[in-house]
């Protein structure tokens, strides 16, 4: 029951990094707090699994210190770390029954038999495995096998953290929702630190209290799902979270006005701190650009996408493309509509990082 | 989607092979069957003998029956001895073999080397190697005061033939096991570390179960080859001293080609063949059925 501290942890596979791009994981400072559910979100190859394996000890970082509580465990072997991890593909012990599989991590740690049995029964009930407890694990479906893997990860009550490495990849979509909410319920019931690696934003946003968005070996933002949606600190977060992602437009910003492709509109804050000579962008999510009947910016509709629960239009403002939420009525392609951009949810980015303005 | 046309004419492609098998195997075996139910007075005249050759062979009170019994017992003992050494040794060495880096290629080639040597050459190498007067191995053992002589001591002869087979064919078990081990995904080893499994648990709960299918094949191959062993004892011991290393194949050779006793030899070779087939079939069926039954 401790928090986990990453003290400038960095990793380069295959030894000495010469430049920053040699790092698979760039120096990272973070405290994972006891009892919270985290998601590590990012595209494939962004270093999220490396980070997870560093915490569990399957990979020893080339730099930095890893602390469980205030104990330095950087070089401690996995089996002495008191950590559980669930992998992407089911790992089961072929010759054992489901019950023996679930009991295995406890048996290896020489817990008394009654404790093991009680714990196995509890976890099996949580994951709907009770009926299968006496069966050999090998004959089961991939879904059930992955549930066993999850169960083995959750069965130890004393772990510092449970790590999940894209655990629902092999699971049927219908069952995915169910298992995810089960994991969430388990998290609430067990009060454990959980870290969940995924490249699926829905999975991350529904599971986690806090999401760590990673790109290219770097954590670009750590925040609640709402923070990531309403205030992306980095253009990558804006682009990666949301479907489709944030609109970014190269702009000239002066005070509380922005000029894009010759058109000017208002911002929610006053920016007099924008440095000269660096690329400036204005970012706004499609959800905050709407078609208005009043005065607005003239935009030409290029393409309409009906997603069922919402309708999007791909428009161009001058020569700049933009995605806009549209009401049912808007029709014709090529039509010029008036759009309004919500100033409160429009942000200014300099060199990909969000700039905080001051209140007007 | 278009449906695949059903066309049985593809069977014609198999015909040349069937023809080849007919001439290389089926017709020769039929001559053996023919000999096994006939007797001859020489001058190429044969007459019907019914199942008499088989009755004699399977009756230990007859000379041929006793001889067959002894040779069968020796051959089974030899097979079991070789399996008992080669399988565990092969697995153990496969576990020790390097898994990455430059050492992989070198060690695999070195391991495979004995298998590339033809049987009769293996026999000749070992025949010289084990000679008590000039052989490096034989002379060294004699030098340490051991009573080692392949042509005079039954124990020396037996031990030598077993050692030759172990040296020649353990590499097959190593390579099969090595391939089986390499096929186990890393996640299994990682999960075992997370679960706090001991080295023994990793072996018995992950590696051995995953190797099972490969090992069934290894045991079958090694059983068949050791049960039919011929060249090594023929070259190194000649079946002796006395009849200590006269295995079924050697005995069969003596009866068929040495004594030209075609009826006895034919009956013996058919029974020999059926034993090999039956043992393999039972072993394979039991192993696969056991697995299937446990899964349910």
Output the structural class of chain A.
Answer: alpha+beta
Number of continuous helical runs of chain B: 12
Largest sheet of chain A: 6 strands, mixed
Going by CATH, the homologous superfamily of chain B would be: MetI-like
Mean pLDDT of chain A: 86
Number of helices, where a helix is a run of at least 4 consecutive DSSP H or I residues of chain A: 8
Largest interface: A-B, 27 and 19 residues
Tell me about this structure.
- Chain A: This is Carbohydrate ABC transporter ATP-binding protein (CUT1 family).
- Chain A: It is a peripheral membrane protein.
- Chain A: InterPro entries: AAA+_ATPase, ABC_transporter-like_ATP-bd, ABC_transpr_FbpC, ABC_transpr_MalK/UgpC-like, Mo/tungstate-bd_C_term_dom, NA-bd_OB-fold, OB_MalK-like, P-loop_NTPase.
- Chain A: Belongs to the ABC transporter superfamily.
- Chain A: Keywords: ATP-binding, Cell membrane, Membrane, Nucleotide-binding, Transport.
- Chain B: This is Carbohydrate ABC transporter membrane protein 1 (CUT1 family).
- The complex is a heterodimer of chains A (360) and B (296).
- With 360 residues, chain A is of the alpha+beta class.
- Chain A contains eight helices and 21 strands.
- Chain A has helices at residues 48-56, 98-108, 113-126, 142-154, 173-190, 201-207, 225-230, 235-240, and strands spanning 4-11, 25-32, 37-41, 63-68, 71-72, 83-86, 161-165, 194-198, 210-215, 218-223, 247-250, 252-260, 263-271, 280-284, 289-291, 297-306, 311-317, 320-325, 336-341, 346-350, 353-355.
- A six-stranded mixed sheet of chain A has the order 6-7-8-3-9-10, sandwiched between helices. Chain A has a five-stranded antiparallel sheet with strand order 15-19-16-17-18, with no helix packed on it. In chain A, strands 2-1-4-5 form a four-stranded antiparallel sheet, covered by helices on one side.
- In chain A, helix 2 packs across helix 3 and helix 2 packs parallel to helix 4 (142-154).
- The mean pLDDT of chain A is 86.
- Chain B has 296 residues and is mostly helical.
- Chain B has one domain (54-295): MetI-like fold (Orthogonal Bundle).
- In chain B, 71% of the residues lie in helices and 2% in strands.
- In chain B, strands 1-2 form a two-stranded antiparallel sheet.
- The mean pLDDT of chain B is 88.
- Chain A binds chain B through residues 56-58, 77-79, 83-85, 87-89, 91, 93-96, 104-105, 108-109, 136, 138-139, 149, 152-153, and chain B through 185, 187-188, 190-191, 193-198, 201, 205-206, 209-210, 294-296.
